[in-house]
Structure formats: C-alpha cells, structure tokens
Specification:
It is built from eight helices and eight strands, in the order E-E-E-E-H-E-H-E-H-H-H-H-E-H-E-H. The chain is an alpha/beta fold and 256 residues long. It has a single domain, classed as Alpha/Beta hydrolase fold, catalytic domain (Rossmann fold). It has an eight-stranded mixed beta sheet with strand order 1-2-4-3-5-6-7-8, sandwiched between helices. Helix 7 links the parallel strand 7 and strand 8. Helix 1 packs across helix 2 and helix 3 runs antiparallel to helix 5. It is globular, with a radius of gyration of 17 Å. The termini are far apart. The relative contact order is 0.14.
Length: 256
C-alpha cells in the first residue's frame, strides 16, 4: 500500500490478524518494513496486526532527496497512524527506527502505549560518528551490497542518498539529542534492548535511557552486537517482546 504524506510516497504493508491490536514495526536505517520477518519467523505475534512501513527514503518509499531527519520520520509515522485511524499504538523500533520511535514518544506521548526500543541511542557517541564519517557501499560485503540493492527500489540514486545521509549524521547534533528532561516526558511502557558488544553505541547509553525514561525496563543481550535480535537471538527476542507488549514482562511490573 502507498500513502502520500509530507511530500513523498510512503510504502507500507499490513500483516497478521486483521482484527488484532495494532503493532507498528520501524526498521533500521536502509532496511524495510518487512525486516520483522527475520525476528518473528512464525509470523506477527498472536493477537496483533503488524504495520510495516518503509521509512522515508528507504525501501520502496520515495523521499530520497534533501536532508534526512529522524524527527521528520516521526511526524511521517504519526501521520500514517492518523491515516489508519489509530489513536494509540504499541510499537517496536530497531536502530534508526528506534530513534524515530523515541521522537514519536516525545512528540506525541499519549499516542504510544508501549514500545520496544532496540539499539537506539539518546545521542551519537564519537565511536558511532567515526563509523558514519567513512561509511560507504565499498565497506559492505558482497552479500550486504546485494541485499541493499534488492531493498532499495529507487536504484543507485537511492543507495547514493542513503550513503550520503549516513555520512551527514556524523556532523548532526540536533536531530538525535534526547536529554534526560526530554526522555522524562515519555509515558509509554518501554523496553530498552541493547547488545553489550555494539560497535556503534556503548552499553552505558542503555543505562542512560533506563535512568531517564520513567516506565522502562532494560534487557542487555550478552555478547550482542548492534541490533541483537536476529539469528540465534531471534526466538528469545520474539517471545520477550511479545510478552512485554502484552504487559506480562518483566515479572516485576513497571509502575502504571
């Protein structure tokens, strides 16, 4: 499905029980709305209707021109929820999708009921900026290059834009700058998921989020890299995230 919003065409798909509770999945940078399938390999969690958009400039969406911001992506997603008639949603955001979700939860706190935020920092530390500055297609493996070409429906122009925007992130300070005061406005029950071996974001950032978001829980994945929810961790993540979104995890309930 396509939705014209804020000057571009957003592509999104719906999965799972048509009468289920809405669950928004926000993929990582240069991914697509179908990336959830690599984690929820048995399908969307039972009882949920999964919404999988391609974020502006990613996947089959247009908008790969100008300067990207996660703040604008959040506004796009809030407009998508309005388009679908959803006043309150549960959501999962991975990496850049998690940054977008943090913006949504601070822009419209009442609209996000519960969320799982994976490998999303309150700000870009220097070690991430160093990687962003020199990021290019040449640094990817042949398998990763092939996957990016398959995902990016806008072809080489889109891929070049994605590379350029990644490099620009290294010199941007205002788009990803969630202070404790800003994070303190979040009202959603929040599960923060981090790998303790993330090359981009040191695990201390997870504790900063946990200390600042009022109704939050923290799950550190041992030996987990960036986005530690795939491969051998997929089944455990799918079970834990589903239970959290239903209000059944952690066993010691977060204050309502």
């Amino acid at each position: 499905m396509d939705f014209e919003v804020n000057g571009y065409r957003m592509h999104y798909e719906l999965f799972g029980d048509p009468s289920g509770e809405p669950l928004l999945w926000l993929h990582g940078w240069s991914g697509t709305g179908q990336d959830w399938k690599h984690t929820f390999m048995k399908g969307p969690p039972a009882g949920f209707r999964l919404i999988g958009p391609d974020i502006r400039g990613n996947g089959a969406s247009t908008g790969f021109e100008g300067t990207h911001s996660f703040r604008q992506s959040a506004r796009d997603m809030l407009d998508l929820l309005d388009h679908l008639g959803i006043r309150k949603v549960k959501a999962i955001g991975l990496s850049g999708g998690g940054i977008t979700l943090l913006h949504m939860a601070t822009q419209q706190p009442d609209q996000i009921e519960a969320m799982v935020v994976i490998s999303a920092p309150p700000y870009f530390p220097e070690q991430a900026r160093a990687i962003q500055r020199q990021f290019s297609l040449d640094l990817l493996s042949d398998t990763e290059k092939t996957a990016m070409r398959e995902r990016s429906k806008g072809g080489q122009k889109q891929i070049d834009w994605l590379m350029a925007q990644t490099q620009l992130m290294a010199n941007t300070n205002d788009d990803v700058n969630f202070t404790p005061a800003v994070l303190g406005t979040i009202t959603a029950r929040t599960l923060i998921v981090f790998g303790d071996a993330d090359p981009l974001y040191p695990v201390r950032l997870a504790f900063e989020l946990r200390e600042s978001i009022p109704r939050s829980a923290l799950w550190i994945v041992p030996n987990g890299s960036h986005g530690p929810i795939f491969g051998s961790n997929a089944n455990q993540f799918a079970e834990t995230a589903s239970e959290f979104l239903r209000g059944n995890w952690p066993k010691r309930r977060i204050a309502e």
